[in-house]
Amino acid sequence: xxxxxxxxxxxxxxxxxxxxxxxxxxxxxxxxxxxxxxxxxxxxxxxxxxxxxxxxxxxxxxxxxxxxxxxxxxxxxxxxxxxxxxxxxxxxxxxxxxxxxxxxxxxxxxxxxxxxxxxxxxxxxxxxxxxxxxxxxxxxxxxxxxxxxxxxxxxxxxxxxxxxxxxxxxxxxxxxxxxxxxxxxxxxxxxxxxxxxxxxxxxxxxxxxxxxxxxxxxxxxxxxxxxxxxxxxx
Length: 234
Prior knowledge:
It is built from nine helices and twelve strands. The chain has 234 residues and is an alpha+beta fold. The protein has two domains: 114 residues, Jelly Rolls; 80 residues, Orthogonal Bundle (Arc Repressor Mutant, subunit A). Strand 11 and strand 12 form a beta hairpin. Helix 6 packs across helix 7, helix 6 crosses helix 8 and helix 7 crosses helix 8. The longest helix has 25 residues. The model has no long low-confidence stretch (mean pLDDT 88).
């Protein structure tokens, strides 16, 4: 009955985002560990070994082509889970390279510990639904960005998605807690670095963003989103 009442209470506020930090801090049997920038956590085919919660820092999942070109598949950061596929699939191995692009603080739980916590506290199943929907929304936004067409639209889509997921409001602008180099954006949107530089300069000239070295500030999120969906810059 106690479990049922907690689940009912959580369902009554199903729209509220989860606090996964509290979940992992409460139920993980080991302290958070620090990972240095540049550490590759997984290579393709490596066993995942459990579920990982990012408390601090940013991680990229990427693939490398036969000619050595890197393509970023997913960028994730504070408040998010790693190895999500392992939760809902029998396959327990990594599909991409997983690398820390900043210093990272991770909580870990084995799959057995994770499912035991969900069994004892089923209200957190709602939190898992939120995580899955967020990942789906990200995938849809990325498809929208590629469908929109040109490189400028794809760069706008990347910046809009990153702003929605990681951006920090500062006055009427949005800043990022991680540096986005032109090459890193190029690896994500599937363009050459020089093409991304041209696109970023165009966005800055039109007053949508401001650039200072590798730091990008969003000045007009609405127009940036419109451009990401294929609208013309006015």
